[in-house]
Amino acid sequence: MNYKIIVAIFFITTTSFSAQSKECDCKGNFKWLTETFEKNDAGYNYILEEKGEETYQNHKRNISSRIKSITSKEECVEIMRDYLLYFRKAHFSISGGSNTITQGSNNTENSWKRISLTRDHVMNSTSHNKNGMDGIWKVGAYEIGILNDGHQYNGVILESSNKSWSKNDLKLTVNKDGTGVYYLGDFSPYRFDKAELIGVNTLKLGDFLSFQNLSSTE
Predict the structure, then answer these.
(1) For residues 110 and 210, which has the higher predicted lDDT (pLDDT)?
(2) What per-residue confidence (pLDDT) applies to 215?
(3) What angle do CA 99, 104, 108 make, to 5 degrees?
(4) How far apart are the first and last CA of the chain?
(5) Please, where are the H alpha helices in the chain?
(6) Alpha carbon distance 163, 165 (integer Å)
(7) DSSP 114
(8) Is 92 strand, coil or helix?
(9) How far is CA 173 from CA 63, 64, 131, 208, in A?
(10) pTM score of the predicted model
């Protein structure tokens, strides 16, 4: 089975499961993904020969350990991507409805756009603008400061447990019409056509991402 087909099936399955349940069975999804990949991917044996069985098993154990502490579907998806990137460094394409994950560019953490931003700056802006997306938001492994620069909203990393991402890295942008792009853990872009504030505590970008407001006092 082709690598891209395996990846597409996994993400479709994960999205469908999550639409029907408040919780994602990440442990079960990971078991399915590894078994399917090991049995069907044409390049699996070649990668094992190149990197070694022990290295691969250590990689799986590391992923399994990280799964124990996740609390959301978004974190699960990030971890599954980390597993898959052991086999393929190139980005892949997944599309569904009006939201898409497309092939990533050659940008890496060493060449990524950065915007200098502090928590105090974000909180000061939030105190003066309580009706927009300005604030500190939590999603997956990231705490993100979002501010409007007059043209668009920019989301910048304030804290990350994903070592590929650093403080001040640009994580997302939202245009005035609600369209935008969120960069996933492997730097591939997730493009969405709708940004929606639900009350003051939740921000949804497309069908895929849900953020928790850490700066709300309500």
Answers:
(1) 210
(2) 86
(3) 130
(4) 50
(5) 3-20, 26-40, 44-51, 53-67, 73-85, 119-128
(6) 5
(7) B
(8) coil
(9) 29, 32, 18, 15
(10) 0.56
